[in-house]
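hiii so my PI (J.) wants the whole complex modelled not just the main chain, which honestly fair. so below is everything: two entries, each one labled with what it is. i double checked the lines twice but i was tired so who knows lol
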Amino acid sequence: MSAGWKLLRREDLGAFLDELAAGSELWVPRRKGTRWDFDRYEKGTDTTFPGSIVEVSAKALFFPRRRPIARFNPKAKWSVEPVELPSAPRIVMGMHPCDVAGVRYMDRVFLGNDHPDRLYEAERNRTTIIGMRCSEMKPTCHCTDRNLSPDETEGMDAVFAEAEGGYLFRALTNKGEKLLGSSLLAATDAQPATREWPKGRHLVPGPDELMDLYDDDFWLEASDICLTCGACTFACPTCTCYLVADEKFGDEGERVTAWDSCQFLSYSRETSGHNPRRTNAARLRNRTLDKFAYSFHKRGMGSCTGCGRCVLICPIRRSFPQLGAKLKERAEEKKARVS
Amino acid sequence: MAHTELIPRPATLVKVTNESADVMSFEMEFNDGAVMDSLPGQFVEVSVQGYGEATFAVSRLAPDKKRFAVSVKRMGHLTKMLHRAGEGEVVGVRGPYGKPFPVNDWKGRHIYIIGGGIGLAPLRPVVDYVTANRSDFAGLEILFGARTPGDMLFKDDLAAWRRDSFVKLHTTIDFPAEGWNSRVGFVPVVAKDLGLKPDNRIAVVCGPPIMIKLTAVALRELGWPEESIYTTLEAKMQCGIGQCGRCNIGAKLVCKDGPVFRLDEIPAHALA
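here's the output for the full assembly
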């Protein structure tokens, strides 16, 4: 595997994408109204790549919002048949480091235990990720405070970056190498520009400090105006909580997994009515602690990648990173009181 | 073909028993003849096609491990459909899942089972294990509470345990009722009255959350260390395999790290 960078001239981008799309499903960022989302590439369409996050994470490509896992005939007693595992090769191009980190976290959830999810595994195996280095950090971005950086490449098969006159590509795995054999790519000595990224803008207390704030009034105050709509969880690249349900449409039935949200009252409510997280405050606390404390214990990795998607989507304009800053203040106050 | 663990395997109901006005036990066997390799305290996900699935403790496992049972209180949609299912009908089953009771670590000890209502279901396999391996244990004492005499579950088992000189059985109901000759009072109160000391004993507690909490308080007042008290917790679950998220207590997942916990393993706020 070559370690060097290859240059694609800007005017050749369309031709290169056409080449990639000839052998695979190709998914690229696409501007839809006011936001970016991933979309299936159609031959010959103009494509640009945003310099920072695609607002709608690529999470759904690996773990769809609604995912049939089996089909059945509602009239039969028992006719549950697993769906076929997807195998058509696919390329997802233009995922930024925070989104790829989300996939790395999902790998731990779905594959890192005794019962690997074969459907997720199939989506992963058929996909080659061509990640993209960010050329900017938005005010809501805080990956540099979440153990990541706009230059991070872990989890990508290949990476590209905007450069003078075009794009620089580099393979990171054998899978990625296979996609970069095009004659449109020319070996070069050029390197992507490097820069110092801002850090320390959105600090959060460490896991132990956070646990010390479990009974703090903070959660009640902070959750007061939350609508518990769950938008932050759906936008989050690592939020993968799901429910299992049977759906019937006439003669067809499907068992599906569907995205669920820890912000919903029904999420942990038992049939008896008992609910360990009845209040908005308890649910906001659970989510915050899961992101910044529990996930380290459960999955060996924090589950906030610092992408800021939760901030961008929140209907009450809640800034979760700023909540972290407030928690930090509370933790300092508490320390001062104790000592 | 290897597929996602979420796909259930068909099992046929071979015996359906009315335990009380709202509890039924369903004995079943896998259609392919496979064994249910569950240990006391583990649970399964049971599906009724078209209506979804829910989590139930295995409430009995036959010695050949082919036939297993769940005991189900009618509470919601899925349990209502299960209650309508008769012998010969097919349901889906996944599992067993979860951490079992560490019965092997309890050898030589006196086992004290404390169950409230449907909470006796996950404890019955422990009773079965201890009675079947009685030479390994110092004794078995059972305290079972139900709301009314009609809510007493597993009546055949209760009678058998009463006859068995190895077992000491106490039953209680919440309020006095005609014809009831046993104890009256909530389980935690009766546990306090019985006054069993922790000497060489292991307590195994299951019931509604409030009962578990108050029983733990009663035992602590009697001098029990948390290390000698085990419980199995209920939590809303969908996957049963540590993925879907909702059953967490702090950083612990009830489906994977539990449902069986030693009391000192449970974060203090969880039983609040």
